[in-house]
Write a structure and sequence with these properties.
Number of strands: 7
Structural class: alpha/beta
Number of helices: 10
Strand order of the largest sheet: 3-2-1-4-5-6-7
Largest sheet: 7 strands, parallel
Helix content: 40-55%
Distance between the termini: 50 Å
Shape: globular
Strand content: 5-15%
Radius of gyration: 18 Å
């Protein structure tokens, strides 16, 4: 490894199991010399295996509901105590649609479900940065990254209200990122990742078919969870100190494709 994060301290949201991108980021951050706190919602912690990840990376776990300001204040305060100072990097890897889970179509949403999903998937990012900003908890040239998907820009019918949530998430990154950069020299970016078979991703209708389609459309093929983790590490490192307010596509080239030979072949077969 390269010691890209040697001496750096962070908080990683959202590691559930070994399929999680956040899980892979934690493993890679540990390999690159970082210390960090792991956090997830209490219910998610009961479902996952985060204790195994904590043992593997020598990390402590602080349960927190990312929609609760009280929980987030406690998380940031305790993280600085545990890590012995300010934070250098934060990963927001949180997303949930109750409408998707309950099989509600986009044109017939339960708006209580919509509000809950919006709070968890997008507004939580604003809340996290609110606490970090107002507590001046980030070191200068620190880096905050959230995970998104290009359904924020283009129509993917079965992605449902998560598409709206991701669009709002990306807007928060730009808007809050301006103030964080101006006032504290902190970077804020989003990574728009290929469709990835995480626990959350596999809950989307037709997901397996779409992974296959994206693979055929992308000149480099789909980016894996581990490859996304590598990219995230680069954004946490000092090698990207002037990259901020960006939505960065990490998708094997899918986002710039109109059509590929492999996809055309499927429609021209005799």
């Amino acid at each position: 490894m390269y010691n890209l994060l040697k001496g750096k301290k962070g908080i990683i949201f959202g590691a559930l199991d070994e399929n999680s991108i956040a899980w892979k980021v934690a493993e890679r951050a540990h390999e690159e010399g970082a210390e960090f706190v792991l956090t997830n919602a209490p219910i998610a912690m009961r479902m996952g295996a985060i204790k195994d990840l904590a043992a593997k990376t020598g990390s402590e776990i602080i349960p927190a509901d990312a929609t609760s300001m009280d929980d987030l204040n406690n998380l940031v305060e305790k993280s600085m105590e545990i890590l012995g100072g300010k934070i250098d990097f934060v990963l927001h890897s949180i997303g949930m649609s109750v409408n998707v889970r309950k099989g509600k179509h986009y044109t017939d949403q339960n708006y209580d479900f919509t509000t809950k999903g919006w709070d968890v998937s997008a507004v939580s990012f604003h809340k996290v940065m609110n606490v970090l900003y107002n507590k001046q908890a980030m070191n200068e040239w620190g880096s905050i990254v959230a995970l998104t998907y290009m359904a924020a820009q283009r129509v993917f019918p079965d992605y449902n209200d998560m598409a709206d949530n991701k669009a709002y998430l990306e807007s928060i990154a730009r808007s809050f990122g301006y103030f964080f950069g101006r006032d504290h020299k902190v970077r804020v970016n989003t990574i728009s990742q290929s469709p990835t078979p995480t626990t959350a991703g596999q809950g989307v209708k037709g997901f397996d078919g779409f992974i296959s389609y994206a693979e055929k459309m992308s000149p480099l093929g789909n980016a894996t969870a581990l490859e996304c983790a590598d990219y995230t590490i680069s954004l946490f490192s000092d090698l990207t100190k002037k990259v901020t307010l960006q939505n960065l596509f990490h998708d094997g080239g899918f986002s710039n494709m109109g059509v590929s030979d492999a996809v055309m072949e499927r429609f021209t077969e005799e």
